[in-house]
Design brief:
Structural class: alpha+beta
Strand content: 25-35%
CATH topology: RNA Cap, Translation Initiation Factor Eif4e
Shape: globular
CATH class: Alpha Beta
Helix content: 25-40%
Largest sheet: 7 strands, antiparallel
CATH architecture: 2-Layer Sandwich
Distance between the termini: 92 Å
Radius of gyration: 24 Å
Number of domains: 1
Length: 206
């Protein structure tokens, strides 16, 4: 009988060890299981570049957009971001576009059509810091306007660089002003910095 008990204990131990090995061999399938921190929204990062002499049109602009990555956790963002060229190192007429997943960085997209954007023009050398501060503020929900923020763009040009933040509803003045004030804070802009708001309907009239 004692031999049988010993055999049962041995089998039980082997089963437990086998179960543990199976658990360890099973890959974590969700961000939470991987110990990652999920963002409130998923985002896609796009890149575009055009020759200086080419005037942009909608078809060419769409063709120039290249999807770099999509992510929905803090850790995924840093894994991608750490390998990217910084805006200050890019050549002229290059753009990064960070938008919520499902929203294309074009004013014709349904989410952007009735919205607009705040535009800040920067002297050369400031784009990398300002862009990083802006996208971290967006990912961290510092603007506190829910789904109203669609995305942001950094545009590298020869004489200056430009950052902009796009929102859904241009007619909601209270929200657009809150976005402006938060943008001024996260970029640490001087009080006299010129900030221009442009609606996407202006583009449609053009």
């Amino acid at each position: 009988q004692s031999a049988k008990l010993a055999q049962d204990d041995s089998q039980g131990g082997e089963e437990e060890a086998s179960r543990r090995r199976a658990i360890m061999a099973t890959p974590a399938t969700t961000p939470e299981e991987r110990g990652e921190h999920r963002l409130q929204f998923a985002y896609s990062l796009w890149f575009s570049k055009r020759a200086p002499g080419n005037k942009p049109n909608n078809q060419r602009y769409d063709q120039n957009l290249k999807l770099v990555c999509t992510f929905d956790t803090v850790e995924q963002f840093w894994r991608h971001y750490s390998h990217l060229i910084r805006p200050s190192e890019m050549s002229g007429h290059s753009d990064y576009h960070l938008f919520k997943e499902g929203i294309k960085p074009m004013w014709e997209d349904e989410a952007n059509r009735t919205g607009g954007k705040w535009i800040v023009r920067l002297r050369k050398g400031l784009a990398s810091r300002c862009w990083e501060n802006l996208i971290l503020a967006i990912l961290g929900e510092q603007f506190m306007v829910g789904e109203e923020v669609c995305g942001a763009v950094v545009s590298v040009r020869f004489q200056e660089d430009i950052v902009s933040i796009w929102n859904r509803t241009a007619s909601d003045s209270q929200t657009t002003l809150r976005i402006r004030d938060t943008l001024r804070r996260v970029l640490n802009l001087p009080v006299n910095t010129v900030m221009e708001y442009k609606t996407h309907t202006d583009r449609q009239v053009e």
